[in-house]
Design brief:
The protein is an alpha/beta fold. The chain folds into two domains: 2-68 and 117-215 and 418-437, 3-Layer(aba) Sandwich (Rossmann fold), CATH 3.40.50; 225-416, Rossmann fold (3-Layer(aba) Sandwich), CATH 3.40.50.2000. It is built from 17 helices and 13 strands. The strands form two sheets. It has a seven-stranded parallel beta sheet with strand order 3-2-1-4-5-6-7, sandwiched between helices. Helix 8 links the parallel strand 6 (186-189) and strand 7 (209-211).
């Protein structure tokens, strides 16, 4: 039986976790996976510094979960510090603990670094146990020495567009990503638009690149009305609202959402906005500054200038569970995806699956989705708040027609964006790589 590791050392909050769960569910279903022993080799904490829990139903005799950094008493003690957890009850230890643990990860021979829980050393050692490794989000960390076939999914080239040219952070990202592309036998990207970008930026790796669309999780019953009402009551949400998910960062562009919401209020047709994401709570009045504080402050100023009031026009839920997010998709009047850049765009598909009209920016990956779904999205020019307000006004005026269009697109969506199809393609690519390696 062939042995495959699916490795995730970043655990980007939200999207990557849902990708892993979608793949795992498909691998438990498809007959093509019966000849494989698959291990999910995962970081214990995600990028929102939340401890990751794995559903028991997404494991099986040939699908296992291993948590990196849990191998020794020393690594178990250091791993929370390395993910900014700090010492319980002592919040001031978060930053010193992070610096200490991450410094220990970088010094000494591989054996010592594995002992203290260094992801790079642990992955290198683990690679001796597998025929192949698939890296779902090779980000920031340079590729370690690996002793098996390697496939990786460079999920986006955000740093090429939004970091200063030649700056330190851009150079770190560039160097790390190149090590993965050089070491990978196959590069699996999430859509044709990403394949085009890779060919543009890194033509020397174009021959190794294969686009494999992601999927959406289907087959679940719609949430009961009582559960929707309970969530609405829990957070004090209005009857009609627009939903935006993701980090409060420039490329996600929540600023344009605030500007559009202010425009709708000036017109006398207000639509509150619910923000969901790891640092969304920083938009609340008096919230302490955190990640990307300068940009968060800019968005808050726009709220004040637009006359938007927290708790009336803007609601900030922060990080929510997959179940809560599904319920929010079913409750929302519209889903907003104003992003200026994505490597794929899973939430717009998840919203459509819930019958929620999606208002999205006209960037290449989302235009690609819209073609597949035969024009179901309400598209607007990235950064154009007036155009976004017009699309939202249309949805408010034609809500039932917008919902009917989303529901009508579901068969197309589930046919094209199917996790089983994704899992089959991944296994086929791994099989081909192993055959070529002999």
């Amino acid at each position: 039986m062939r042995r495959l590791a699916i490795v995730e050392f970043t655990m980007s909050a939200g999207g990557v976790e849902r990708v892993l769960k979608g793949l795992a569910g498909a691998l438990l279903e498809i007959p093509e996976a019966e000849d494989w022993d698959v291990t999910l080799l995962l970081a214990r904490y995600n990028s929102a510094h939340k401890k990751v829990e794995w559903p028991a139903e997404l494991t099986g005799p040939r699908l296992h979960v291993e948590w990196m950094g849990q191998e020794t008493a020393v690594s178990r003690a250091l791993d929370p510090l390395a993910h900014a957890q700090g010492i319980p009850g002592l919040p001031f230890t978060r930053i010193p603990g992070y610096v200490l643990a991450r410094t220990l990860w970088k010094i000494g021979p591989e054996g010592f670094r594995a002992l203290v829980g260094d992801s790079r050393a642990l992955i290198s050692r683990a690679s001796r146990r597998f025929d192949a490794m698939l890296f779902t989000y090779p980000f920031w960390l340079e590729a370690p020495p690996l002793h098996c076939a390697v496939l990786s999914s460079p999920s986006d080239f955000n740093f090429k567009h939004f970091l200063p040219e030649g700056g330190l952070r851009q150079r770190i990202h560039e160097k790390a990503l190149r090590t993965w592309m050089e070491r990978s036998d196959r590069l699996l990207v999430y859509c044709e638009a990403m394949a085009d970008e890779l060919r543009h930026f890194y033509p020397e790796y174009a021959a190794r690149t294969v686009p494999v669309p992601l999927g959406v999780t289907t087959g679940k019953a719609a949430p009961a009305p009582e559960s929707l009402a309970a969530l609405r009551l829990q957070h004090g949400l209005p009857e009609r609202f627009a939903l935006m998910t993701g980090w409060i960062t420039p490329h996600k562009d929540p600023l344009v959402v605030i500007q559009a919401a202010a425009e709708l209020r000036r017109r006398g047709t207000p639509l509150p906005v619910v923000f969901v994401g790891p640092n969304a709570t920083e938009l609340a009045d008096g919230a302490p500054p955190g990640f990307n504080a300068a940009y968060v402050a800019e968005v808050r100023r726009a709220m004040q200038e637009g006359g938007l009031v927290h708790g009336r026009d803007v609601f900030t839920l922060g990080y929510v569970s997959d179940d809560e997010l599904t319920r929010l998709f079913h409750m929302a009047t519209a889903y907003l995806f104003p992003t200026r850049y994505e490597g794929f765009g899973l939430p717009s598909l998840e919203a459509t699956l819930a019958g929620c009209p999606a208002v999205v920016s006209s960037i290449a990956p989302l235009i690609e989705q819209d073609r597949v779904l035969r024009g179901v999205y309400r598209l607007f020019e990235p950064g154009n708040s007036r155009a976004l307000a017009e699309q939202l006004a249309w949805v408010l005026e034609h809500e039932e027609a917008a919902r009917a269009a989303a529901r009508a697109a579901i068969p197309l969506l589930t046919e094209h964006y199917d996790w089983r199809r994704t899992a089959r393609a991944y296994l086929a690519n791994v099989t081909e790589v192993l055959a070529r390696r002999g």
